[in-house]
Amino acid sequence: MAAANLQTMQNASLVDADAQAEALYASRMMGITITLAIGGVMTYFGTRQPRDDAPMRIKDMPEGYKPRDELEQKAVDSYERKQELPLIPWLMANIRWVMATYITGVHVLAVVGLPYLLDCKVETLLALPVFYIFSGFGITGGAHRLWSHKAYKGYTPYRFFVMLCNSMANQGTIYHWSRDHRTHHKYSETKADPHNALRGFFYAHVGWLLFKKDPRVKFAGAHINMSDLAALPEIKLQRRFDPWWNLFWCFGFPTLVASIGWGESPTKAYFILGVLRYVLVLNATWLVNSAAHIWGGHPYEDSHPAENPSVAILSMGEGWHNWHHAFPHDYAASELGVSAQFNPTKLFIDFCAKIGLVYERRRATEMWSTRRKNKGYKNVDLVGPPFLRQRVVS
């Protein structure tokens, strides 16, 4: 009898424990559901349109209102363009999970590998900026100025060398990088711009890679003429072995160089010269799409791309972005020489021209001089220290 009572009490305790567990689980799920619902509502109303307190309450201006000055006109234009942007679909279904996992993963690995900087060979530390420069040049002097804009020409050995540098940067194939960049210039800061800065810093920096493309971006990119690049042997080679080709040159090649060259630990070489260097070059490139489209002066044209010396330093001369969007065919991507405006990419291209690897470098300085003579064109002054001089509207 006593045993039966004990068994009954144990069963009752188990039932109570199960009931408590179910109640706890239900309360937690309710909390998660409420949190997600609140977050969803805030995201919806937070990104659907510009805030109500937009500058000068432009949304309240009467129909037919004429802006009083240039500053107000810019604000009106910017507001109207933002109004046309659709809601950014910050939904799970629109996330490119493979890309999001990859980009998050390499950034986590870069942080994990930072302690190796304190315990590696001196040669590895010296090699870090070298690999940064060459892989960065594969983007700035290669995918950007050579192939996207055809701002200068290079002989076959030079083009294959720059293709290898570009592969070390591992930002997709030259073909696809150039297609997106040509689309960006043709439809800058519109719905068809792959990394439209009007959507905000995060979207222009990396968000455009994490989410599925807007249909208008896909349509615009599909109608960009890429026949000139598709026929080039170096681009055919890179595309044929994509993505393994780029992955080897980005991570495997630097690891082998350090391991065989000066006996560095393969692990340290991989984390420092592979992952860390890769992430640094990635973000320097992305800053041109984000920071250089948001902060800086506009002496050459009243478009969103700006002159940003800080970005120029990090991206090897790509931060003189207002000039670049005004004259995209200019191989220098800046108005002034390298002693006035920091531009290692131009310096290396000029060196290669002297030794006969590069030819037909196109410049836009004469076009700029002619434009400045037009009546009513803005007056600009040259200010700043050496290497960081820039035009400002006077």
From TrEMBL:
Gene Ontology MF annotations: iron ion binding; stearoyl-CoA 9-desaturase activity
Record keywords, A-Z: Fatty acid biosynthesis, Fatty acid metabolism, Iron, Lipid biosynthesis, Lipid metabolism, Membrane, Oxidoreductase, Transmembrane, Transmembrane helix
Segments traversing the membrane: 29-47, 97-118, 124-143
Subcellular location: Membrane
InterPro entries: Acyl-CoA_DS, FA_desaturase_dom
Fatty acid desaturase domain location: 126-329
Cofactor: Fe(2+)
Topology versus the membrane: Multi-pass membrane protein
Keyword Oxidoreductase recorded: yes
GO biological process, one term: unsaturated fatty acid biosynthetic process
GO cellular component: endoplasmic reticulum membrane
Domain notes: The histidine box domains are involved in binding the catalytic metal ions.
UniProt similarity note: Belongs to the fatty acid desaturase type 1 family.
PANTHER family tied to this protein: ACYL-COA DESATURASE (PTHR11351), DESATURASE 1, ISOFORM A-RELATED (PTHR11351:SF31)
Name listed for the protein in its UniProt record: Delta9 desaturase
Gene source species: Parietichytrium sp
Lineage summary: Eukaryota, Sar, Stramenopiles, Bigyra, Labyrinthulomycetes
